[in-house]
Amino acid sequence: MSSPADPRAEYRRHMQHRQATVIGTILAVMVVAVAVSLLVSLGILPAYNPGFSHPKSTATYMPQPCPPNGAKTVDVTTIEKINVYNGSETVGLAATVQQELEEAGLTVTSANDWPGGIYNGEVQIMASKGGLTNAYSLAQIFPKSTVQLDKSLSDDDTTVSVVLGKEYLQNALKSDEIKLLGAGKPITAPSDCVPADKAATKKPS
Fold first, then answer.
1. Is residue 136 part of a domain?
2. What is the full DSSP assignment across the chain?
3. Do residues 88 and 43 both lie within one domain?
4. What is the span of the domain harbouring residue 180?
5. Is residue 23 one of the residues assigned to a domain?
6. pLDDT band, residue 30 (cuts 50/70/90)
7. I need a surface site. Which of 87, 158, 185, 205 has the fewest CB within 10 A?
């Protein structure tokens, strides 16, 4: 007659089996995860895209409109309306630049996110044909900025909008440097500029 099984030995066997199952499952999952990661890194499998929406990017090249013949810079503190837009992914950038401009005595009427989404350039300064002198004067503050026509404005609107792009290096002149700009300097036309009338009718390619 066989003796009854030892309950403690039975319990140990049960726990060993359970531990082996858990460890085996974990190892299998780790092997699969490593294999998938390797396939993704090698480009064999596409990376997971959760489908989140991203702001659209804008940076279509357009020749700059030429400044008016014989135009000279104005005192930037006399520009009546300046809008600053954040077209980058840096939170609060427009407000930071607004503060710097206002400390130099400029009039900033708004600081908001750029409605066009992410601007892939550095700094774009926009104005109507009548505001080009203001735009080129303000461009002195932002190295490597470009000037473009704002077709939403009437020709006599002197509003200037500054769009801070994704590539903006935050290298604008400081307030004390802006105060030294003065006025009356001849505005040099960009080498690739086109007459404002032609620039106004040119559409992005």
1. yes
2. -PPPPPHHHHHHHHHHHHHHHHHHHHHHHHHHHHHHHHHHHTTSSPPP------PPEE----PPBPPPTT-BPPPGGG-S-EEEEE-SSSTTHHHHHHHHHHHTT--EEEEEE-TT-EE-SSEEEEE-GGGHHHHHHHGGGSTT-EEEE-TTS-TT---EEEEE-TT--S-PPPHHHHTT--S-PBPPPPTT-B-HHHHHH----
3. no
4. 57-200
5. yes
6. confident
7. 205
